[in-house]
Structure formats: structure tokens, C-alpha cells
Amino acid sequence: MNQFARLAIEAGPLAAFFVANSQAGIMTGTAVFMVAITIALVVSWRLERRIPIMPVVGAGFVLLFGGLTLWLQDDLFIKIKPTLVNLLFAIVLFVAHATHRNVMKRLLGTVLNLSEDGWRTLGIRWAWFFLLLAVLNEVVWRNFATDMWVNFKVFGIMPLTLLFSAFQAPLIMRHQLPEEPAESGPTA
């Protein structure tokens, strides 16, 4: 699947949430988000015959907390979802670091070929970043109106994540391992 299709599948549900919220409020936005993320998973499966773990976890949280939001008619649940998802990711990465397990390598090892030190450093940086996102989400939803929180979720978290990712390039370049040459067959 090309990068634009992948971006549409990953960012489409968030865009649908933003538009629906701006037109009809948080409850409708949440319902649209739940439907859109389910459609995105189905499309991803149909195109690639697999669904990466991060979108599945994210969709699970959207469906759980979105369902609670709609059932109880309380937007608290959809607002705390980013906090809990980011805390979960941070905890997994901190525990992996403490127990010398390399979760980042498992998740990204087919895309990046880094030294063990590079993987450890990348993992701990992402752990701290996810913790920061959790704290920021808490500050925004507790201190600003719902529409401001939605704007932060759409136009704050995604750009911050992309910017943080871009700032990891020097680390990745410094710890990138050379490609191993392909084995050649027997010569006659």
C-alpha cells in the first residue's frame, strides 16, 4: 500500500471525528469516529491482509471509550482515551526498557535496522514522549472547552508526533546498521 493510502486510512477517522464534531457535537463526532475507525481497519485488512498492532490497539480504545461515551452520554470517556492510550504505550516501553526487552525493534524491525543501543535509546525517547502526550491531553481536556480539546487532538497531537518522529532522524542515522549483502548462489 502506498504512503498516501496508509495516511488516509490512519488519519481519515480522526478527520471524520473533527468534521462531525464541528457540525453536530461531540456525541455525533464520537459515533462517526467509531464507525470510521472500524471501516479503516476493514480497508487496511482488505488491502494488506494484515493489520498492524498499533491501529488495532487504537481502534480497541476508540470503540471501548467511544461506546462508554455514547452509552453514558458523558464525553469524559472519549477525552481520557488519548491519556490512557499514551500511558499504556509509555508504560509498555518503560517496562520493556527496564526488563531489557526490545519492543521498538519488534514493532519497527522490518523498517529500520538499528544497533541495540539505537533501539534502546529510541524506545526510551518514545516512552517519555508518550508520557508527555498523556500529560498534555489531561491539561487540555481539563482546562479548555470540548471544541478546543478536539482541535488539540486533531491539530496538536498529530503534528507533535510527526515533529517528534522527524527529530529522531539523527539518532536513527547514527545507529543505522549497514544492509547485509544478499547471499549469492553457487558459482559454476
Automatic annotation (TrEMBL):
Organism expressing this protein natively: Azospirillum lipoferum
Where's it found, cell-wise?
Cell inner membrane
> InterPro entries given for it?
YciB
GO CC list: plasma membrane
User: Could you tell me which Pfam families the record lists for this protein?
Assistant: IspA
Q: Which parts pass through the membrane?
A: 24-45, 51-72, 84-103, 123-140, 152-173
Question: What are the entry keywords?
Answer: Cell inner membrane, Cell membrane, Membrane, Transmembrane, Transmembrane helix
Q: Which family does it belong to?
A: Belongs to the YciB family.
> Gene behind this chain?
yciB
Which top-level group of life is the source organism from? Answer: Bacteria
- Its main subcellular localisation, reduced to a broad class, is membrane
Function noted in UniProt: Plays a role in cell envelope biogenesis, maintenance of cell envelope integrity and membrane homeostasis.
Note whether Membrane occurs among the keywords: yes
Q: Which residues form a coiled coil?
A: none
The taxonomy runs: Bacteria, Pseudomonadati, Pseudomonadota, Alphaproteobacteria, Rhodospirillales
Q: Does the keyword Cell membrane apply?
A: yes
UniProt protein name: Inner membrane-spanning protein YciB
Topology relative to the membrane: Multi-pass membrane protein
